[in-house]
Structures are given as structure tokens and as C-alpha cells.
């Protein structure tokens, strides 16, 4: 059975990353010097999210317990590094999420996972249960809908 269960995912959602609905504002504000502060504020940029912001935020929050190797908000791609659950260190998983549209729809989200098990000191590819990937997609979609409801209501 895959270790990436709903219990494991939801248990780790506490430390989540939050982005605004319109994007992530990045400002570099140095201290002390007023001229430098004005220059830094003038250089502050807003990165726009090229895909549905609720799906993006929900994906980041859902995968927040795993180390990210790639996070491209313009292209809607998240790729994690290998993650081994401390309770099951002989198994590890890597997840990629692709957000394909600006609309909040089920077909705008694609999740893929790779799994390996440790056998004789070597990591060996192992199958990922389809239900695991489907459940991960369901968690992301539900969280995205909740985020949209919170923003609208």
C-alpha cells in the first residue's frame, strides 16, 4: 500500500504556503537608507500566476510537507523531490502537479506520482496505486474550491 494516504497528507497541511488570489507580491526592502528603500520599493515586482490561483494555492498547501524541486506559477508546474515518510523510511514518493487552465475545473489538474521501495540497499521502482493519485487530486480540488468559497464569501 502507498504511504501517501489521506491521513498523511492532511496531517502535514499545518505549515502551508499562501499566495494572494492575484499572485505573490515580492518586495525587497533594505533597512536604514531612505533612498535605498525607495529604490527597493520601486523595484518590487508582482509575479502573476498564469493558471488558476486556487488550484495553485491548493497544490502548494497539499504538497507543503514534501521538498519542492520546481515551482513554476506561470506554467502551473510543481515537482517535488523524493519524500520518505519517517514512519516508513523504506518507501519514498515523488509527485508532480500540472495545472492546465485558468479555470477551476477537475480536468485542469493533472497529478502524477512515482514510488520507490528500498530493496537490498537499492531504490527500486514500484507501482503507485491509481487510487492514491486520484485521492491526491481530490484533496487538491476540494481545497481549491474551499479557497474560492472563502475568497468570494
Strand runs, count = 7
Query: Which band does the percent of strand residues land in?
Result: 25-35%
In CATH, the topology of the domain at 49-152 is named Alpha-D-Glucose-1,6-Bisphosphate, Chain A, domain 4
The topology string of helices and strands comes to HEHEHEEEEEH
| Uncertain stretches | 1-47
CATH architecture of the domain at 49-152: 2-Layer Sandwich
Main beta sheet: strand number and arrangement? 5 strands, antiparallel
Structural class by sheet pairing and helices: alpha+beta
Shape: elongated
Radius of gyration: 18 Å
> How would you state the average pLDDT, rounded?
77
In CATH's first tier, which class of the domain at 49-152 applies?
A: Alpha Beta
> Which percent bin holds the helix content?
25-40%
Give the terminus-to-terminus CA distance: 39 Å
Give the helices and strands, then pairings.
Blueprint: H1 6-11, E1 24-26, H2 34-42, E2 45-47, H3 53-62, E3 68-72, E4 77-80, E5 91-99, E6 109-119, E7 122-126, H4 130-152
Antiparallel strand pairs: 1-2, 3-4, 4-5, 5-6, 6-7
Name its key features.
153 residues, alpha+beta, Alpha-D-Glucose-1,6-Bisphosphate, Chain A, domain 4, 5-stranded antiparallel beta sheet, two-stranded antiparallel sheet, 4 helices, 31% helix, elongated, disordered N terminus
Provide an overview of this structure.
The structure is a single chain. The protein starts with 5 loop residues before the first helix and ends with a helix. β3 (68-72) and β4 (77-80) form a beta hairpin. The chain is elongated and about 50 Å long. Mean pLDDT is 77; it is low at 1-47. The longest helix has 23 residues, at 130-152. With 153 residues, it is α+β, with helices and mostly antiparallel strands. The protein has a domain at 49-152: Alpha-D-Glucose-1,6-Bisphosphate, Chain A, domain 4. A 5-stranded antiparallel β-sheet has the order 3-4-5-6-7, covered by helices on one side. Strands 1-2 form a two-stranded antiparallel ribbon. It has helices spanning 6-11, 34-42, 53-62, 130-152; strands at 24-26, 45-47, 68-72, 77-80, 91-99, 109-119, 122-126. It has 4 helices and 7 strands; from the N terminus they run αβαβαβββββα. α3 (53-62) crosses α4 (130-152).
